[in-house]
Amino acid sequence: MEKKPICLIIFGPPAAGKGTQSAKIKEKYQIRHLSTGDMLRESIANKTKLGETAEEYMNAGKLVPDDLVKGIVEEVLNSPSCANGFLLDGYPRTMRQAQDLDEILSQIGKKLTAVINLDVPQKKLIERVVGRMIHPPSGRIYHKIFKPPKVPMKDDITGEDLIIRKDDTEEVMKSRLQNYFDQANKILEHYKKENLLTNIDLKEKDYNFDEVTQLIFTEVEKMINNQ
User: Fold this and answer.
1) Radius of gyration of the chain (CA)
2) Which burial class, exposed, middle or buried, applies to 137 when counting CB atoms under 10 A from its CB (0-12, 13-18, 19+)?
3) Is 45 exposed, middle or buried (CB count within 10 Å of its CB: 0-12, 13-18, 19+)?
4) Interstrand relation of 32-34 and 6-11 (parallel, antiparallel or unpaired)
5) Which tens digit of pLDDT belongs to each residue from 54-78?
6) Known catalytic residues?
7) Which fold has domain 6-120+174-225?
8) Among 36, 96, 141, 218, which one has the highest count of C-beta atoms within 10 angstroms of its own C-beta?
9) pLDDT (tens digit, 9 = 90+) per residue, 79-122?
């Protein structure tokens, strides 16, 4: 029997750990990890008509319209690089985009396997961001509680100064979370009705990174077996 592609979406608020978990999911299932930015850059690099039009908007500092994004998403998801499946990260961001994705998948003959939602307590999300320190040249990230540098405000490797980003404050983070949940809750409810939502509940216990990965794998395997 032909192996079905594994088609996933990962949701989670800022600082939920989507990026690090996505790397593990991609590795296990040998599927492409895609963000909207990845798909736009690929379309531009391949010099497709849609990519060239999107580039004009981006060069002018304008948002790429939803209809154009929809066409580019369809192009990439239907490409040979997604034959085994894909992991969408940061798309869809709105109900309109969720409906667009439904249409795209119907047109290219693929079905979602699961929608993974990382359900992290808001207090923990704020803690992760507010204590964050960054070494700009390398991108190395430290945290005053979870990963403090050996010398306060100095990079462990180079000894150079660390910075705290101006938007890494509790006030800004609360605003970002509110904006995220305003859109995400509607989208998650949409996928729940389709029996595609798998909620990774991280509120009751303080799981480490590997434990979260195993929770995700367990839930995704259940969804694969139920297809």
Assistant:
1) 19
2) exposed
3) exposed
4) unpaired
5) 999 888 888 888 899 999 999 999 9
6) 18, 93, 132, 165, 176
7) Rossmann fold (3.40.50)
8) 36
9) 999 999 999 998 999 999 999 999 999 999 999 999 999 999 99
